[in-house]
Amino acid sequence: MTARCGVALAVALCVLPAGQEGGAAASLPRAGRGSELLNEPFTGSSIADPGFQPLNSACLTGASGPPPAGASTTGPCTDPGQTAGPVPAPGVTPGWLQLTDSGNFHKGGLLYNRPLPGNGGLQVTFEQYQYGGTGADGIGFFLVDGSTDLTSAGGDGGSLGYAQRNLDPGVDGGYLGIGLDAYGNFVNDGEQRGLNCPADQKSPVNGDAQVPNTVALRGPGQGIDGYCFLAATITPDANNQSGYTTTLPGALRFPGADPLQAKRTVRLTVSPEPLPLVTVEIDFNDGKGFRTVLSYRMKVPAPPTYKFGFSGSTGGGTDVHLIRGLTGSSVDPLSTLNLVKTVASSPPGGGTEYAVGDTVDYRFLVTNTSADTLHDVAVTDPDITNIQCPSTTLGPMGTPTASMECTGSYVITGADANAGQHVNTATANGRSTGGANVPSNESSAAVDVAKPDHHLAITKTSDATGPVAPGDTVHYTVTVRNAGTVTADAATITDDLAGVLDDASYNGDADSGGVGTVTYDEPKLTWTGDLAPGATATITYSVTVDDPVTGDGTLTNTVVGPDGSNCPAGGTDPDCGTDVPTVPPTTPPTTPPTTPPTTPPTAPPSGEPTTAPPTTAPPTTAPPTATTTPEPPTGGPSAGPSATASPGGKPLAATGFDYPAMWLALAASLLVGLGVLTRVWTKRPGRH
């Protein structure tokens, strides 16, 4: 059997057939896997938890007198507006929480004005009973932001205590409303429900037509705005005036007078994701157990804590509306001591941003999820020194004393303004009955802070006019000027020296001239100070170039200032940085090549034959005899150079032969011959 899925005006909706669970909802953790947060059966004569606040005709059928001191103010069902129709007998236990009797135009509600943690998701289970009348209107269950002071429900009638109705406001801080709607009005946008909602969150149901016996979801709202239609157990049906019919596999109400026959158990799961998956399951008391009837992914982030409420109403049509067996738990298990920190105030100037000097109020929800009593419970936050808690003891899980809210406050500083927000983290600690320390999880909260109306003009320079040599000292100057119109509180700049320290050493001499403070945490220099409009801070320091230079040969560094300065992170203003080259290292002179030998080697290299290669000996004969030339005529001029005496005294004939040149030619020939022989020898087989 497959799921039947219908789409109405782009609203995601998938209704599963009776007896079948699947998809995302089937994988959700079931009751008992998370941490217990609340357990109130409503069957006794009073409600111990004072967080439960009754509205209008709501009463406790098991009560026989006024509630005891310190308990919920929910009283007995004895007033004339609480006894019409087949209501349970007053003062008889086990009883019920009665929202309305079967009288016309009655309404009643019960609010839980104590927050439940949402950091592990939330699962709420309860029994609802609608019976004994003509089938109107229905029961609503809603979740609101836990920071809301929940003192009243929303519009009655078809709005089921959640949404607006004819300009009557909806519930404060509304996040999610679930209509268990016997009559069928909660699903439509009649009576101005869903006012000012976008087109894709308008109900697909025609006008104010009803779709009886439906479960519908409506989203966040405040006052007369929002509470938009999200999804419903409906499918198109042209035979109905509304154009739709219900897909529920069972009836939400019982037409007879026996409340036990009207029992329907509802389980609502809100997953712990930032955009939670909301799943509604119902056990129709027919032996088939829980069946997933609706699943929807929220488009608005969940609040960190929740409060909740029930509402029932009648009009021209009627029913008795009862509740029993309420439990609440997380979806994911929580820490034994669970902490949720939330912001409990709004910026005093309106808008969404705090300003310097504004006070932020915080709340710290501390919850015991163990069966043991915890002692010496305290909350700590490094930024908040005035945390106050109503008690130091937390009772066992699920009891009225298992949780408490502590409070504290913080004043926004100039540093927060420069950062644009303030974020801080709190923790809690307690002690078990046996004395063991019980720490909580960490919990953080953030608020946006308006950035100051100032502009920091930053300039960085060095005294280097060219490449610097090993051993040289380079002096840097950073100037910071407030060019804005208001004081820059706790302005901060950083100068990262990582690109300098590979070639130089910091001299530890940073100074700001008494304006602000400058610190060094290798490799970064940080200056922080207050600057009035027009004021300037000057920061100086120096480095000494290494000898020898071992880095990349350039001293490179850039100043980074806050957003709004000319040197933000990732900026490109050349005034924010310097590049100082170093002198390249000296290169030793190159040795000239040696003159090749004029004689062949006396022995071959190792491994070669020892027989010397053949050589050609220089000639041993005397130079050729000069040719005799005829003597010139007597008294005539000489035909050549004058005769030169021979070594023996005999004149040599003038031949025109240049003996020095001859010997130079012979020497050159000898060298060439030697070179040829050397090449021949070196090219012998086996040589490379």
From TrEMBL:
Extent of the signal sequence: 1-20
Domain of life: Bacteria
Region ranges (Disordered): 63-92, 545-648
Biased composition range(s): Pro residues: 582-622
Alphabetized InterPro entries for the sequence: ConA-like_dom_sf, DUF11_rpt, DUF7507, DUF7927, Ig-like_fold
Membrane-spanning parts: 661-682
Bias kind Low complexity: ranges: 83-92, 639-648
Keywords of the record: Membrane, Signal, Transmembrane, Transmembrane helix
Gene3D superfamilies according to UniProt: 2.60.120.200, Immunoglobulins
Domain DUF7507 stretches: 337-440
Protein name: Conserved repeat domain-containing protein
Species for this entry: Actinacidiphila alni
Lineage of origin: Bacteria, Bacillati, Actinomycetota, Actinomycetes, Kitasatosporales
